[in-house]
Amino acid sequence: MRRARRYIIRVRPDGSVRVTVPRGGSRSEAARFLDKHADWIARERARMGEAHRTPEWTDGAGLMLRGELVTIRVSDDGGRRTARYGDRAVRVPPDARDLRPYIQADLRLAARQELGLRLHALADQHQLRVAGFSIRNQRSRWGSCSRSGRIALNYRLLQMPPAVCDYVLLHELMHLKQQNHSSRFWRLVEAVCPDYRDAERWLKVHGRGLL
Ligand SMILES: [Zn+2]
């Protein structure tokens, strides 16, 4: 990076490591810098793993749905066990304690319907054509847009406040016009989503909590 003054190491939430190389720096120097800080990297990874351990979704636990905290309630009626959260209900096995896998599957189902509708409504509004749409379970990104115009969305978008979710959808839709993050791209985003900086901030502060 031309503007960087020194080497900077960053450990990402998925445990991968990114090194910023300053102007005039080199790959081999970056590798030496990494070696020198191997202990720190190991500690940082351990610390992140700790912070990253996903909490169990059990009866009475809370989770985010469309930006609101909802409580999981499990009921048994005639041998059928149902977990309800917000306006959703999903069958769960009688012996399951952590309901996360079942609720996640249900969230994906809801996301496929609701995010699909919203994405196509926004695309129509801005006269854009989406070539394809899929729901993913990505650990490090909220959405993506391929060169051929296929948009993939993280099901966790359904857990965010609708304004933040809309921003991510509009962000990906604007990639149909501009396949990069140039200033031209951000001008397109700002034109359709004037408060996008607030949404970006929300994602920075709360996004990791959803993963
Ligand atoms: Zn982007």
Summarize the model shown.
This protein has 211 residues and is of the alpha+beta class. The chain has helices at residues 27-36, 38-52, 100-125, 162-174, 183-192, 196-210; strands spanning 8-11, 17-20, 62-65, 68-71, 73-77, 80-85, 88-91, 132-136, 143-145, 150-154. Zinc ion is lined by residues 171, 175, 181.
List the helices and strands and how they pair.
Elements: E1 8-11, E2 17-20, H1 27-36, H2 38-52, E3 62-65, E4 68-71, E5 73-77, E6 80-85, E7 88-91, H3 100-125, E8 132-136, E9 143-145, E10 150-154, H4 162-174, H5 183-192, H6 196-210
Parallel strand pairs: 8-10
Antiparallel strand pairs: 1-2, 3-4, 5-6, 6-7, 9-10
The structure holds zinc ion (ZN).
Beta percentage is 15-25%
Instruction: Write down how many β-strands occur, each being a DSSP E stretch of 2 or more residues.
Output: 10
Q: What is the N-to-C succession of helices and strands?
A: EEHHEEEEEHEEEHHH
What profile does the largest beta sheet have? 3 strands, antiparallel
Mean pLDDT: 91
Summary tags:
about 210 residues; about 20% strand; binds zinc ion; single chain; flat; three-stranded antiparallel sheet; alpha+beta
Structure, described:
With 211 residues, the protein is an alpha+beta fold. It is 42% helix and 21% strand. The protein is built from 6 helices and 10 strands. The protein has helices at 27-36, 38-52, 100-125, 162-174, 183-192, 196-210; strands at 8-11, 17-20, 62-65, 68-71, 73-77, 80-85, 88-91, 132-136, 143-145, 150-154. Strands 5-6-7 form a 3-stranded antiparallel β-sheet, covered by helices on one side. Strands 8-10-9 form a 3-stranded mixed β-sheet, with helices on one face. Strands 1-2 form a two-stranded antiparallel sheet. A hairpin with a 2-residue loop joins strand 3 and strand 4. The structure holds zinc ion.
